[in-house]
């Protein structure tokens, strides 16, 4: 009798189906929603892993991208966006991602991560690049000697409160005095639905620093593609004179001021300090609880400015895997070989710099 029951019990159980193998794919336009659903649910993913960056980078700079993902049983397990930079001046590279401060593989399990790493390695070899670059917040391959890192960039991230007074008091005294100066002088902030004033302030600033400007269409595409998650905030005097502007990203409970600049008047009225305070106020009211001041290079004015706001620098250990290159890339304004270029660029008339800049900056990433 017991054997009959055992056989009946065995027949009544549903068969256990083995999981299908993981497979590698390139994202197609109709799959953007699936891709973004994974990114938004993945704890280690960032705003810069969203699918919209493919459209922005390809249309703004004409750069080729590969958005790889791994799936199993129709469920995405990991993603890796990549883009190729090919320049006679600055070299040939494959990166995750150019124009983004964070990037690299994000995955829900080690096997998917390994498949995406292998895809990047194979593509780098196929393209014949000098190096492959990942821009993670932490090292993904700390024990692999094929991957190198160097100390150049840091990021500044800090928790904020929903109470303005607490956030203001958390700013060190000297910097807080600059914020109060802007308030006293009647500076005001507003959100623009276009990038005209932002571009004016941004182009003015980068020209003053001797850096090529991004094309205006790049900022317009960011605003268009990312919608409510991309904000253009403009600071003016009480009589509506342009002081400064910043383009920021909203991601989960974070705000990420990403591109900004100020006119000459900004120095006299503490425009930049007021701008970031005005953004912090707006972000806190929107529910943000983390202010990501973004990437800076060690030893720069931007680095000092963010430290003076009471933010602590966190290293960004970008990783590099060399292929045809014999040394790590050093394409940044701190490189001594670019000093003459920077000096000469500052002397160009602003309209000429704005016309030439986009043809150069697309090769920098």
UniProtKB/TrEMBL annotation:
Show the InterPro entries listed in the entry: Acyl_CoA_acyltransferase, BioF2-like_GNAT_dom, PEP-CTERM_FemAB-rel, PG_Glycine_Bridge_Synth
Per its record, how is this protein called by name? FemAB family PEP-CTERM system-associated protein
Xref: SUPFAM superfamilies: Acyl-CoA N-acyltransferases (Nat)
Q: What is the lineage of its organism?
A: Bacteria, Pseudomonadati, Pseudomonadota, Betaproteobacteria, Burkholderiales
Outline the extent of the BioF2-like acetyltransferase domain. Answer: 173-307
């Amino acid at each position: 009798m017991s054997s009959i029951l055992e056989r009946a019990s065995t027949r009544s159980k549903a068969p256990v189906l083995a999981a299908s193998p993981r497979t590698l794919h390139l994202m197609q336009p109709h799959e953007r929603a699936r891709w973004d659903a994974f990114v938004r649910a993945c704890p280690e993913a960032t705003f810069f892993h969203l699918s919209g960056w493919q459209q922005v980078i390809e249309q703004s700079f004409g750069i080729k991208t590969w958005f790889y993902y791994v799936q199993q049983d129709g469920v995405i397990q990991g993603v890796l966006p990549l883009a190729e930079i090919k320049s006679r001046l600055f070299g040939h590279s494959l990166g995750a991602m150019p124009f983004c401060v964070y990037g690299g593989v994000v995955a829900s399990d080690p096997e998917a991560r390994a498949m995406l790493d292998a895809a990047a390695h194979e593509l780098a070899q196929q393209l014949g690049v000098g190096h492959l670059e990942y821009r993670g917040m932490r090292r993904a391959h700390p024990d692999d000697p094929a991957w190198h890192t160097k100390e150049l960039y840091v990021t500044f991230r800090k928790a904020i409160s929903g109470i303005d007074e607490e956030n203001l008091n958390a700013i060190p005294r000297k910097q807080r005095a600059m914020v109060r100066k802007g308030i006293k002088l009647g500076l005001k902030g507003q959100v623009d639905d276009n990038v005209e004033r932002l571009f004016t302030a941004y182009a003015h600033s980068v020209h003053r620093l001797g850096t090529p400007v991004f094309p205006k269409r790049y900022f317009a595409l960011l605003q268009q593609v990312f919608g409510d998650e991309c904000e253009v905030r403009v600071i003016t005097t009480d009589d509506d004179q342009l002081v400064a502007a910043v383009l920021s990203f909203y991601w989960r409970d974070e705000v990420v001021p990403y591109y900004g600049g100020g006119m000459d008047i900004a120095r006299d009225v503490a425009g930049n300090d007021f701008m970031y305070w005005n953004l912090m106020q707006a972000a806190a009211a929107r529910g943000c609880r983390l202010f990501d001041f973004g990437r800076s290079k060690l030893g720069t004015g931007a680095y000092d400015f963010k430290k003076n706001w009471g933010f602590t620098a966190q290293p960004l250990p970008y990783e590099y895997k060399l292929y045809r290159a014999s040394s790590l890339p050093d394409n940044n304004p701190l490189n001594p070989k670019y000093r003459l270029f920077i000096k000469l660029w500052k002397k160009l008339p602003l309209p000429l710099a704005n016309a030439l800049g986009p043809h150069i900056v697309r090769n920098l990433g």
